[in-house]
Amino acid sequence: MKAIESPLIGRRPVLARDPNVMRFQVQQILNSHRDKLINSLLKDVPYFLAYRLGAKATKDELLEIESKLLQLKKRNVNIDTTYHSIIDQVKKKDITRLTNELFYSEIEELLLSRTITQLKLQKDSFQGIRFGISLEDHTGSVIF
User: Fold this and answer.
1) Running along the chain, 144 residues long, what does each successive block of 10 average in pLDDT?
2) What's the per-residue H, E or C state across 29-85?
3) Which of 124, 108, 91, 127 lies closest to 45, judged by CA?
4) C-alpha neighbours within 13 Å on the C-beta side of residue 81
């Protein structure tokens, strides 16, 4: 029997033998994992921004970010692109162990999309360089 182990939702069996049904089961497990991760992020969005992105946001920006995170929860994970590597692992292994990196990457990509980067996030560190974004400091000067 195949299973997916998640640090957030525990071990979940993948019982299907049909590849299409298996993909659906994996998608549901990944949705549950991502939802749990987003729920934990929503408890302290400012900390997440500071820790992962080295950024601060205004009250209005925080509301926009929270809204985007809630919208993401309503969508299924994309197992054909973003999460295809997990599908491959499930096919090859009896137990697939999830980490949060792919999920964080998806969330960061969402938050650093054009609508969010147009907001004036204040940069605390140079971590934003790896995303190729343009952020402004508190004076409105572009720092990246």
Assistant:
1) 96 95 97 98 93 86 93 95 94 96 92 58 42 40 36
2) HHHHHHHHHHHHHHCCHHHHHHHHHCEECCHHHHHHHHHHHHHHHHCCCCCCCCCHH
3) 108
4) 5
